[in-house]
Amino acid sequence: MSLLSRMSAPAAGHEVARLAAAVLAGRPGVPGVPGVPGFPGAPGTAPVPAAAYVPPSARLSSRSVLPTGPTGLGTSALRITARRAEPDAVPGSGPGSVPGSVPEGAPDSVPDLYCPPHLRDDPALAHEVNDRLVDWAAETGIYPGRLDRVRATDFGRLMMLAHPGTDDPERLLAAARCALAEWATDDYYCDDETTGAGPALLGAHLGLAYTATDPSHPPARHAPEVAQGLRADPVRVALRSSFEHLARYADPTQTARLRHEIAVLFVGYGQEGSWRTSGRMPAVWEYLAHRQINSFMPCIALVDVVDGYRLGPAEYDDPRVRRAVTMAATASTLVNDLYSLAKEQDSGGVEFSLPTVIAAEEGCSLGEAVERSAAVHDELVHTFEREAAALAATGSPELRRFLAGVWAWLGGNREWHRGSARYAAPGS
Ligand SMILES: CC(C)=CCC/C(C)=C(\C)COP(=O)(O)OP(=O)(O)O
Fold first, then answer.
1. Is the pTM above the cut of 0.95?
2. Residue identifier of the C-alpha nearest atom 10 of ligand 1
3. Secondary structure (DSSP) of 365-393
4. Predicted confidence (pLDDT) per residue in 266-282, tens digit
5. What residue's CA is closest to ligand 1, atom 18?
6. How far is the CA of 251 from the centre of ligand 1 (A)?
7. CA-based R_g, the chain, Å
8. Which domains does the chain have, with CATH numbers?
9. Angle, to 10 degrees, between the axis of helix 252-278 and the axis of helix 169-186?
10. Which segments of the chain have a pLDDT < 50?
11. According to the UniProt entry, which residue ranges have a biased composition of type Low complexity (predicted)?
12. Atom number in ligand 1 closest to CA 1
């Protein structure tokens, strides 16, 4: 789809968030969670039931208000609209709410999800990052005339929530630029026909976009054309610029890792384009494979870069680590599917999401498919949690830190989706 507080810092009684924050802040000696926030089940630690660290306050309380009813152009008025969550479960809905915290009318048609809590909420930091990001978007030329929508979407807040390990706005901004450029690639080439999106040109666009991350090295006489081609398209400019800025913090192996994740993301964009062109609804297993590659993995890949350390390639690419982290990435993207469902139903076009694919394959209502999608999400998060705990127990300190960062990223991502204007219920 085209892009067009009450402070929710972890509640004082929120024991695990406190522990995790302590570990992320580098304070040793956290009982029972040696260097691994949120993995109380790690070998050598006392088993703690999951519910102990996904407390009721971290769970949405809106179960059972589901987007049901007819879908398609002109039918949105017939559907049950999203219900606001209980005030005590909705940070930002009370007096003193800040921009970017969960607004009145936020989409609460999403069932309870098994997800860690977000570990901090610093609206001033989010605002700072968001302002700088919008300035950068203006410089690159992406989203002309729509920067107000970019601002309202508040990727600065996403970065602040998802990367609680640093409060350096420039580091958060480095990741934010990458995310916005990746999102713009989707909007411009896949979703928004007004910016030239269309299946016929998708491959051509993505091929050139890739060269913005991995420069083309032509024979000398074509070099000026290549340089001109990079400047000719705002998405290419944004991707190129985001990599240039990131180089301040990422070493070549981390940059190569991101480039790989983006190439994979682009394969996912192409996959979705082919379903659209052919009018084919994918099978559930196929869609899940898709949501692993058309996912937030490029964002998650920057967890160590943002926090100022380096997970070596041998551990990053260890198949066991890859399995755990890609499961987390898929889960985080299913959060997107659930929160963007109302928006995508209103678009009138063909939109793929796990609920729509499950409803088609399993012949159930969309409401039931939402519940089943939430169960899929939860299984992935449980599996990540279990496997990450085992990996953390035997891996390097950097791996422990990285897995903890991924866990924190999941919590920040969910919180951002709850509050972003991009997914707010129509009219809110
Ligand atoms: C930041 C990043 C890696 C984005 C690329 C993938 C992407 C756009 C998503 C995972 C979001 O999915 P979707 O296209 O459904 O986005 P919206 O729901 O329109 O926000």
1. no
2. 295
3. -HHHHHHHHHHHHHHHHHHHHHHHHHHHH
4. 999 999 999 999 999 99
5. 340
6. 26
7. 21
8. 116-423 (1.10.600.10)
9. 30
10. 1-107
11. 90-103
12. 19
